Amino acid sequence: MTEIKLTSDELRLISLFSSVTSATARDCILDEKMDRVIFVVNKGQMGLAIGKGGATIKQLQEVIARKVELVEFSDNAVDFIRNMLNAEMVSEVRINERMDGSQQAIVTVDARKKGAVVGREGRNAEKARLLAKRYFNIASVLIVSPEQQVTNRVNMNG
User: Fold this and answer.
1) Which bin fits 65, alpha (ψ -120 to 50), beta or left (φ > 0)?
2) Beta pairing partners, 29
3) Rg, C-alpha atoms of the chain
4) Which of 140, 132, 130 is nearest to 99 (CA)?
5) Distances 23 to 61, 102, 152 between C-alpha atoms, Å
6) What is the distance, to the nearest Å, from the Cα of residue 2 to the centroid of all Cα atoms in its chain?
7) Distance between CA 5 and CA 131 in Å, rounded?
8) Residue 76 contacts residue 113 (beta carbons within 8 Å)
9) Fewest beta carbons within 10 Å, which of 29, 44, 88, 123?
10) What is the pLDDT along the chain (158 residues), one digit of tens a residue?
11) Can you tell me whether residue 81 is helix, strand or coil?
């Protein structure tokens, strides 16, 4: 795992997160491009961070005046990527080494659920790329459906 350096703004937001939610955030990313704040929450603290009926997270969003997204941490890259992309919708996560030595995560999802997994304007896919690189030095995250994999194999072999 790589060392993560936080800015004073990020540290301030983590402190605010803890005081509002009583959960522990181990990381905070200010994503200006998507106008959101992503908190990486310690394993098992997701419920505490969200609160009953989402009340705690809504309160935090009002205080920060930005969309807040949460990801439950895992020190296993496959589990962490599942957590980022809605584990129920992900069929499989494989991590491959590419020719240049970098790592790539291939996430297989049902074609009907691919839009929900990728997210509006690719929000979820972008979050997965950002965090996979930050924590596990995974250069890219590909989200595919089984039909695409068959097509890709045919193209590579043909």
Assistant:
1) left
2) 38
3) 17
4) 140
5) 15, 34, 42
6) 16
7) 13
8) no
9) 88
10) 567 889 999 999 999 999 999 999 999 999 999 999 999 999 999 999 999 999 999 999 999 999 999 999 999 999 999 999 988 999 999 999 999 999 999 999 999 999 999 999 999 999 999 999 999 999 999 999 986 554 444 444 44
11) helix
Sheet strand arrangement including 103-109? 90-97, 103-109, 138-144
Give the long-range contacts of residues 24-28, CB within 8 A, separation 24 or more: 25/49, 26/73, 27/73, 27/134
Determine contact, residues 74/136, Cβ cutoff 8 Å.
no
Q: Could you give phi then psi for residue 33, rounded to 5 degrees?
A: -60, -40
Q: How open is the CA angle 70-122-86, to the nearest 5 degrees? A: 40
Residue 141 structure tokens:
């995250």
- pTM of the predicted model over 0.85: yes
CA–CA distance, 128 with 126 (Å, rounded to integer): 5
